[in-house]
Amino acid sequence: MSKGRLEAFSDGVIAILITIMVLELKVPHGADAEALRPLLPVFLSYVLSFVYLGIYWNNHHHMFQLADRINGRILWANLHLLFWLSLVPFVTGWMGENHFAPLPTAVYGAVLLLAGVAYLILQNAIIAQQGQGSRLAAAVGRDVKGKLSAALYAVAIPSAFFHRWIAGAIYVFVALMWLVPDRRIESKLNR
Amino acid sequence: MSKGRLEAFSDGVIAILITIMVLELKVPHGADAEALRPLLPVFLSYVLSFVYLGIYWNNHHHMFQLADRINGRILWANLHLLFWLSLVPFVTGWMGENHFAPLPTAVYGAVLLLAGVAYLILQNAIIAQQGQGSRLAAAVGRDVKGKLSAALYAVAIPSAFFHRWIAGAIYVFVALMWLVPDRRIESKLNR
Amino acid sequence: MSKGRLEAFSDGVIAILITIMVLELKVPHGADAEALRPLLPVFLSYVLSFVYLGIYWNNHHHMFQLADRINGRILWANLHLLFWLSLVPFVTGWMGENHFAPLPTAVYGAVLLLAGVAYLILQNAIIAQQGQGSRLAAAVGRDVKGKLSAALYAVAIPSAFFHRWIAGAIYVFVALMWLVPDRRIESKLNR
Amino acid sequence: MSKGRLEAFSDGVIAILITIMVLELKVPHGADAEALRPLLPVFLSYVLSFVYLGIYWNNHHHMFQLADRINGRILWANLHLLFWLSLVPFVTGWMGENHFAPLPTAVYGAVLLLAGVAYLILQNAIIAQQGQGSRLAAAVGRDVKGKLSAALYAVAIPSAFFHRWIAGAIYVFVALMWLVPDRRIESKLNR
Question: Is D13's pLDDT higher than 70?
Fold first, then answer.
């Protein structure tokens, strides 16, 4: 099985998800600045989720460049990842409309955590298919960054019930961790 | 006519369908667990339909790898399949919002049955185009799995009016039948 | 400029249009047959528009197989066609929700007519780019079918104000004219 | 990293944006001409935004034909551009539904300005990756047209609060500037 169509399908789903999120930014009826104010938290959560989906698309892209062939396990591991990503627009809207209330903020983190775990499962499925001398396994190394992200989400979820801004800060930090360090930190993190 | 553009178009439609279904998961106004509870049946029917569309995408992908050329009959048989699949978000939302009430649950099964029949028509159109010695015909064999699925849907539809959970269990069973058996059962089912 | 990306973009837009039309089929609140009845005209107009968009995708696909290079005029003629097609979901929903009332039925025909004219403009742009000995010009011939469709829409639009079913019958007839005749009639119609 | 998947992803996002904008054209309940009248400003702003997204798709297409390789900076500059474009449906709907009121008209211009700046950042990222003798730098020249557009948006935004039609006229003029001049003006503008 060729990987081209799996990549194209995943790109399609992520492109749609990143775009339909904006439908949660409901057009307000008023035409003044007051009308925009309640949209601010929705907008902020939209920006955060846009960055997360961009990171997933980017990493997915890199990972499949190192993949060789697709088997049934990889295919379903990929659909499993897309499933959790497909819930991102819902939890983004719920967190934004409720001004980062504890439960929606925790559920947002839970969906990020499950998407992160699904990503690791997909990564393992590709490594298992490649067997010994896997190019992906060599590139990923100990995957400190992937495991650290999962650990940080696991801290953020309960913290949303104490101080929601701790959870929010962790989500922003994890996103920045994937965005910013291109050369120096990356080499240290074995990725 | 090349099959690349037909595959890309079908991928696009299925990617959009699998994604817009999540729009039926309307963002609740409350921020507590109570607000999520009425969404549970909608979520469950979303999971089921996500798996079904994933199975269709997967099977479509495999089938067209064995297709050679596209003619008008194959093209319209493919659009006919996409038509029934395009109704999946509607029946998913209707069944979920009505907590698996009899009629929506039966209509859900009817759309699955019609999509299954459309798939068989498409399969036959490709086999007819290939003529004798068709690679697809050899791969499909007697297609026990495809015919068994259609028969099970035909049982599920009336059973929804007696015990809706029988219908639900059949839908889950058919999905698992396509998901789980990768090696042993498949060889027995001639597929 | 390569034609691959123009084809992929057009496929994407048509795939999305054919899919978001189904969002006009709003999930009813009731769970009985009564709840489905008001959706019948919306469903019928959805089927009609699905077939029309399928025909456009099919014809677009064939036409660009005969195209060589893309210039600015072809690119914008293509976007002009996509613009009118993008209004199909709107007029489909308006006609369906108003049970084929005169004005929406006439406006539906007007959008079909303008899409048809845009298609002819696009066809001419490709023929002009190819110059003498154009492969597309040879394939299209006198394009009786394209011109007849435009003429029939022009008859259907005013007739919607007298007997809306005349307009409806013409829309169905034009769709069938493009769907059904694959060999015999087509050769007579020079296409 | 190959540029094919970045182009396909960008095409997907722009195709979806250009299409979901039409969802702001809400199907009216009435079936007479009166019911259409309040949709006129929404329709006009839809036409304007359709043309703008078409111009961006067109220019994006040309620019990446001159790109060689994709690095992390180009990838994120591209996502940054898609982010601002993703807000176009929102500001289009807001401007249209409020009949070109001052604030929405100014915000529409601000999103166009930010998308234009993002486009220039992306252009610079590609030129930086190509280094000396960049093919894109040679093609773009001094980029009078890009800088003039940004300047015109900067004029339009405050003018929306004095005479909104000045802002509207500037938006139309910039669009026409990119649409119309194919040969003569373009060579003078070094693009």
Answer: yes
Predicted ipTM? 0.88
Report the chain B residue with the minimal C-alpha distance to residue C52.
B79
Report how far residue B20's alpha carbon sits from residue B22's, in angstroms, rounded to the nearest whole number.
Answer: 5
The 10s digit of each residue's pLDDT in D87-119 is 999 999 999 999 999 999 999 999 999 999 999
Chain C, window 9-28: residues with a beta carbon less than 8 angstroms from a chain D beta carbon: 9, 12-13, 16-17, 20, 23-24
Nearest beta carbon to residue D90 from set A8, A22, A57? A22
**Chain C contact for D178 (CB, 8 A cutoff):** no
Task: Retrieve residue D124's tokens.
Answer: 């610079």
pLDDT of residue C24: 85
Q: Tokens 């104000």 sit at which residue? A: C161
Asked if A31 and D101 come within 8 Å (Cβ–Cβ), the reply is: yes
Two tokens, residue A39:
């949209």
Q: How many CB pairs under 8 A join A and D?
A: 67
Beta carbons of D22 and C94 less than 8 Å apart: no
Selected for mutation to probe chain A from B5, B9, B23, B27 (highest A CB count within 10 Å) is B27
Number of H helices, E strands in chain C: 10, 0
Find the residue in B nearest to A98 (Cα): B31
Q: Is D50 on the interface with C (CB under 8 A)?
A: yes
A68-97: b or e for each residue (b if 16 or more CB lie within 10 Å)? eebeebbbbbbbbbbbbbbbbbbbbbbbbb
Helix D40-65 and helix D72-86, axial crossing angle in degrees, nearest 10: 170
Q: Is C103 on the interface with B (CB under 8 A)?
A: no
For chain B, give percent helix, strand, coil, nearest 5. 80, 0, 20
Q: Got the DSSP string for chain D?
A: --SHHHHHHHHHHHHHHHHHGGGGSPPPS--SHHHHGGGHHHHHHHHHHHHHHHHHHHHHHHHHHS-----HHHHHHHHHHHHHHHTHHHHHHHHHHTTT-HHHHHHHHHHHHHHHHHHHHHHHHHHHHH-TT-HHHHHHTT-HHHHHHHHHHHHHHHHTTT-HHHHHHHHHHHHHHHHS-SSHHHHHTT-
Tokens matching residue A34? 């007051």
Q: Do D19 and C17 touch (CB under 8 A)?
A: yes
Q: Enter the DSSP assignment of A28.
A: P
Nearest Cα to Cα of residue B13 among C82, A13, A6, A87: A13
Establish, for the pair of chains C and D, how many residue pairs have beta carbons separated by less than 8 Å. Answer: 67
Tell me: the pLDDT tens digits for B127-160?
Answer: 998 888 888 888 888 888 888 999 999 999 999 9
User: Chains that contact C by 3+ CB pairs under 8 Å?
Assistant: B, D
pLDDT digits (tens, 9 = 90+) for C117-141: 999 999 999 999 888 888 888 888 8
Average pLDDT of chain A is 88
CB-nearest partner of A83 from B36, B50, B57 = B50
Answer whether A173's CB lies under 8 Å from A151's CB: no
